[in-house]
Structure formats: C-alpha cells, structure tokens
Amino acid sequence: MTSIQPPATDTASAWHALSAQDTCFCLNSNSCTGLAAEEVARRSRIYGPNRLEEKRLRTKWAICFEQFKNVMLVLLIVVAIASGILDAVEMRAGTFDGVPFKDTVAILTIVILNGLLGYLQESRAEKALAALRQLSAPKVRVLRDNKTAELDAAELVPGDIVWLEAGTQLAADARLLVAAHLQVRESALTGEATPVLKSATAVLDEDAALGDRINLVFAGTEVLQGRGQAIVINTGKHTELGRIAELLESVETAQTPLQRRMTQLGNALVVGSMLLVALTIGIGVLRTGWGRLLELIEVSLSMAVAVVPEGLPAAITVTLAIGTQRMVRRKALIRRLPAVETLGSVNTICSDKTGTLTQNKMVVQEVAIACGAFHVTGEGYAPSGKFVLGEEAIAPAQYPDLQALLVAGVLCNDATLQFSGAQDDRAPDTSGERGEWQVFGDPTEGALLVLGAKAGFANPTLDGRYQRLSEFPFDSERKRMSAICRATDADVPRSEQALVLFAKGSPESLLARCTVYQAGEDAIALDERERDRILAANADMADRGLRVLGFAYKPLDVEPADADAAETDLVWLGLAGMMDAARPEARPAVDRCIAAGIRPVMITGDHPLTAHAIAQQLGIARPGDQVLTGPELAKMSDGDLKAAVDRTSVYARVSPEHKLRIVEALQQRGCFVAMTGDGVNDAPALKRADIGIAMGITGTDVSKEASDMVLLDDNFATIVAATEEGRVVYDNIRRFIKYILGSNVGEVLTIAAAPLIGLGDVPLVPLQILWMNLVTDGLPALALAVEPANPDIMKRSPFDPGESIFARGLGWYIIRVGIVFALFTIVLMSWSYGQAQGSANPESWKTMVFTTLCIAQMGHAIAVRSDKPAFEMNPFSNPYLLAAVSITTVLQLMLVYVPPLQAFFGTHRLSLVQLGICLGFSTLVFVWVELEKLFLRWWRSRRRLRA
Ligand code: ATP
Prior knowledge:
By secondary structure, this protein is of the alpha+beta class.
C-alpha cells in the first residue's frame, strides 16, 4: 500500500530543515488520522521495538567476583586453608586418620556454592528490577487509524502521531506539528539545564546544532510546560539518545539500609570471631601449654565457622524480593528496593485528593449562570442527559450565556471523548453492541466535553465553527487555562473573522481577572455584590463536595503572546460543578490507616470547602477542622508551619512548591512521610519525602522518575496495602534474624565449652557447622521469610524508622536464647561424653551434640513464628515452614544413618535410645521459648491490671 519508505535514519540530521507538512509527507503519515494498523505492523517489522538495548551495568563476572569480596566468605576461605594445613601437619606426624583435606574441600565447595547462590540471587534481583522498570515504562498517547490510544512507548514506529503535555518524558525523536508554549528540558541530551521553548512552525538551517533544533523533540527529554503534537521521526537506537546510550541511567542496584547494616553485622561478627579464636588459643596455651595447640586450633576454626551466619544474606535477599512481588500483586510498584523495608515505618501519608481518594470520573451536575443554576442529568461519560431549571428541562440554545459557557468548556479542552465499541456475538443484548465512552486526557476536561455533547456540541471544533489557534496551557500554579480561537464563517473574509479567548479555571483565580459578566445577551459591569454572589454560589457547590470550575471569554483583536496580559478584562460566564465521588475503598483504607497509627493527610489543589467535604466523608477531617490553604501557607514562617502541621489534615488550593514545605515541616516534627504526586512540579516533594509515591495512570513520567514507588491504580487504598506489606517484610526479617543468630550463639558457646569442661575433643567439625548454618538453619529461615501477616499488624503503631534491627528486645533475645540453647546442649554433651567413653561407639557423643543442635532449631523455628503461644497458631498457615522442618529433619537423619553420608560428614550411627535422648533435649528450646511467651503474657496482663 505505501509506496514511499520513511527516509533512512542516517538522513535524520536534516529533519529540522523540513516543514511539518513535508515531514508528514516524507514519513507517509497523516496528522489527522495517524498510521493505519497494517502500516504500523510493517514499520515495526522494519524498525523493531522502540527501545534501547538494555545496558548491563555489571557483567556476570563482576557480579560473581563481588560475591567473594564478602568478608564472611573470606573468613571461610582462611578456615579452609588453615584446616588443610592442619591435616597436612597431622599426616606428616602420622596421627591423621580419615579422608585427607575433606574439611578443606567441603568448606571451599560451600564457599563456591554460597558465592554461586549469591550470584544467582543478585542476577535474579537485577533481572527483577529490570522487569519492574519495564512495567513502569512510559505510555504514550498515539493517533492511529483515526483513533486515540494509550500505548507502551516501545510500540512507537516512525510516522506515529503522538501528543505531548507537561510531564511527558519523550520516548522517541519527533517533529512537532503543534506546539502550545511547549517547554522541554533537554539536559539529558545537551547538558543545558534551561528549558527550551519549542516551535512547530520553525524551519531551520540544515547545520543547526542539536540544542537549536526547536522544531524537534528528542527521546529522553521532558516536557516541562505546555502541550503539543508531533510526528515520530526516529525510534530506538536511531534516536539521538540511542547514539549516546552510555549516558543512560544505569539499573539501580544500591544496597538497602538493612543490607548495609547486615554487611556491618557480618564484619563485626568476623572481627568478634577472630578475637574469640585468639582468646581460646591464648587461654588454652596458658592452661595446658603448647602440647595441645593443634586441638585448640581445631576448636578455634570451628568457632570461626560457627559464628558466621552463612544463611542470612540469602534470606534477606529473598524476603525483599518476595516483598516487592507481593506489593506488585497489590498494585504498588517498587522502584527503589529500600522502600520495601522502610514503608513499614511510615506514620504519615500525604495524599492528593483527585483520583487517589476520589474516582477521577467527573460528571458535571450543575451549571450556574447569571439567571440561575441548571441541574444536569446523566451518568458517567455517556453524552446523554438533560439541562433542568427548577423542574423543567430546557434547551441550552435558549440561553446564550449558557451556550457560551458550554462552548468555552469544549474549546478550552485537550481531552478526547471516544466510544470504544466492540461487536460481541455472544452478547445477549439485541443491538449486539458493547463498549463504553472513554476519555483520553484530563477527566476534568473530559467531563466538559460530555457536558457540551449533552447540548449537542459533539466535536472539538463545533462543526468547524471555530478554529483553535493557540493556548495558554493549564498548570497547577496558575490554576487556569485559555484557548485562542477564530470564529470561522465562510461568508466573512479571514482577516475579518473574530478572534476569541476562552478561559476556564478555579473560580477565584478567574473571577479576579473578570471585569464584566454575561447575563443573557448583555455584558454587565461586575460590581462587588455580583462578585460576592458568584463566590457564594461557588462556595455552596464546593460545600456539597462538587469540584467547581469558572468560565470566561474575551473578544480579541490580535493573537496575544503573553498569558498574563491576555487573561485580563475577561467576561465572566458562569460556574460548572462536577461530582467526583470518593472511591468506595478509600473510607475503609483511611480507617485502617488510623487504626495502624498512620495519619492520613489530604493535599489538594481544589477548593477548601470541596476538600473539606470529601475529607469529612472519608474520615480524614472532622466537622469544624481547619483547612490550611496555599495562600495562607505561603504567608507562614517555617516555624509557624511546623506548629500548624500537627493540627492540619487538609490542605487546599496548594501549589506543588507548598507540598515541599509541608513535607519538610512534617519531617521536622519527626514524621516519616509518604507523599503522593503526579505533576512535574511535584518531583522535588516526592524526592524529599521518605517515600515518594507517583501515580501510575495519571502521573507524569517526571514524577515517576522521582518516586520510590508507583501506584499502578492511583488508589489511596494501595498505599495502605503497601504499608502493610512493608510491615510484614520488616517483621519477617526480624523473625529470621532472631532465629539464625540465636542458633549461632548457641553453637559457638557449645564449641567453646568443650575444652573448658575438659572434653579432649571438638564436638563439631567445620563441615557439620556449615551444614547447620546453611541447610538446617537456612531452609526454615527461608520459610520464615514468607510467614503470612500477623492479623494485628495494622492495629499497632509504626516502629521508629531509625531503630536498630536489634531494638525492642531482639538483641537480648538472641543472647538469652543462645545461652539457653548452649546450656541444654552442654548438659547433653557432658553426659553423652561420659557415656560414650569406653563404649563400642566412643565418638557417638559428637553426633548426639550435632543432631540435638540441628533438631532443636526445628522447634525454635516453630516457636519463633509468633509472640503468641504455638498452640494458638494454625500450624498450616505457613505450609513452607512445615515442609522445611520436615525435609530438614529427614536430611539430618540421613546424615546419621546413611553410610556414605556418615563417612563424609564424620557422623556415627546413633542407637534408638540415643536418638530419643537427642529428640528429648531438642524439644527443650521449644518448651523454653513457649514458656517465656506465656510468662510474658502473664507479666503484661498483671502490669495492665495494676495500671
Ligand atoms: P489534587 O491536587 O488533589 O489532584 P486538583 O486536581 O484539584 O486536586 P490541580 O490539578 O492543581 O489539583 O487543580 C487545581 C484547580 O485548578 C482545580 O481545583 C480546578 O479549579 C482548576 N483546574 C483543574 N484542572 C483544570 C483544567 N484542566 N483547566 C482549568 N482549570 C483546571
């Protein structure tokens, strides 16, 4: 079908020398209808997806090598070498029996396995992060087949017609067809921080530098202000950005605060174990002389291995990864890993109103002009409904001022209203038509298109009666927009056709710029009484929770260049109040928030009364609570604001820069703040907040880039759900740290006790300790990482984000239970040692110690699940733990009873009685922890009674 090929990409440098029309011609595309589906398919076969090759920051080898920089693995390597030297010395002395260098080989194997595991996890984590990035990849609004659609940027092909608006991150290089005050930040490409004002009409010299090509926009740059339409000229690696791909931001792999703290813990443990080794050898030599040096070294090596929690890093990585996956399932996309663990500490959630707490599905319910207020019927975006005055339906054409207001609403508009119907043969309805009316673009503007359509104005140019020439776009700072239009009349020469500016915006800001108001056909001077009447009507609508917009117009002689000068001496038309109902799930989410000790705060650009009405419906504010407005806030000193944030839960008519001050003031009051945002100007506040949250649907690419988390459904309830998941992650991490480190302390003390109580041998060899730390501790720890949420998790206050991981008794628990663990095992060790001496199996005591330590940990894993006694827990609520405990117990028994494993791990067959004794001792740790829980419960209830 297409005979002309899009020009080869190496001629791309000359695109700026073509007019917009010539560019469309060269690319064989149509700016009114876009490309046809077959042509898109053909072009995407030629040009491939619009994405750059993912640049891997670290090679596989680099990730692999980094595993061995871990100080704990280095310690293990040293132990392996020392153990090898020891074997060699014993062999030379002729005192060695068994398989030579077994420990060395085993430790090195485990070091390699551990490194491999770390490598696999890290590369999986990198892939997962890349996949998450893919999920948050920018969407573009494209015109194809005469229909508008939201597509993944990767699907763009040369010749596509795309829309640009403030906050869009450009996904391809494109030639502008329309540009309304379009300002683009090109610093990613040119290094120039000042925004560039773009023009669609410019045709430039061929040798214009990249930074001067004002008629082109480039992939990787950001629209800061204005709107536009453009035709894609280059995609993927053919874009200017593709040519300098190394500038691309790398995949983020920063360690989370927790991982950093764990690395520090690892270092501390290594240093501690070194000291312990030195101490054991020192005391041993002092007591028994140099004769037992070899034995002492063996004890020290075992202790050094025992102290390293080899299973911990894996458990942490898995928990964080599972946390992000669980959050994505609940529609919260994590962009920076630390957010997973810090979300649990959030105690203040600052949320936008429109779209987050409300549905962002606007329907105009009321229109007020000079002669009175009209009720508008109809639901959703379907353009059918009536205008009712009093009890009577009227024809809008009878009221010129109402007509003008509706025209202003349709012309001052960048949204599109479209019916997406689908034939469905199986559908029972006789028409066979299914589908719905959809709005592309701002729902506020969509509602005005629907309103206009209800009066018969079904298309943006009002059947060609108006031509839109330019616009002063909406921004949250000005809170208004205007469009300059030419009233086209075939009978009048073009030079004499009337120019009109139509404006809409927040009633206060627009009314302040009006001097006259329209009443029927007449324009009457606005006096104070009339102003007060209009503001009272505005307040009345806002008080009922309606979102209110004002409308005005002004005849022009010439097309203006400056918004500030143009938007003066306007003629006031009237008000439109639209309903944006609260999301049904928002109220329960607010209640959950409050129960969880988290304060919800609403920050909106809307009217204070509208904001308060919705906040009250949702339980964020109570009747009579104060609402702080942007202008009031602007007058406050930082000190006053700091005092006010404690009392204020609703902020209205705020601009993005106020958001930053609110976050800072809250943080100074010690709050840990999650803050939502969607606009370009929200980026600083999102960055400053402890958790910056961008909107997945309505959010600009710039706000997403600045955020820690993206809400895929723009829903407040999702923030609360993510906070809950954050708490679960943090709880689980503490749970398995309790479990793993408690066991390590027990092992170290047991080994250190052996020479001190005069046993002539080491109870555990390094290989057995590694087995315990990696397998018998590791598997249950992984299962604890997926422990389901405690049902009360959202009924307690958040924890201090700065607290140490060992806070709230965790450090003390590890030491206490570690000592108890060791005491039970030492009793068993000294008893079984005595029994074994002179028996047929004199080494069996070591296997008894080994087995008891392993199986005791199984009981500990079950006990550590909750603060509640085990008998109150459903054992099947974490089936992974049951499986881990069963598998580990079977594996341990195999080590004791399967001959090749016995030989390898240096274990000895135990009699049934011996095994029974081990199992009996093993349950003691479980019993101890359970008794502790009961005691604590009793103690707390007694204290409560006394209080
Ligand atoms: P939130 O901050 O909760 O998302 P919001 O949408 O009201 O609320 P802004 O987008 O900053 O915040 O809008 C501020 C005000 O500007 C609105 O209350 C409305 O009066 C006006 N307004 C909103 N959208 C438009 C628009 N497209 N054109 C003109 N005026 C608008």
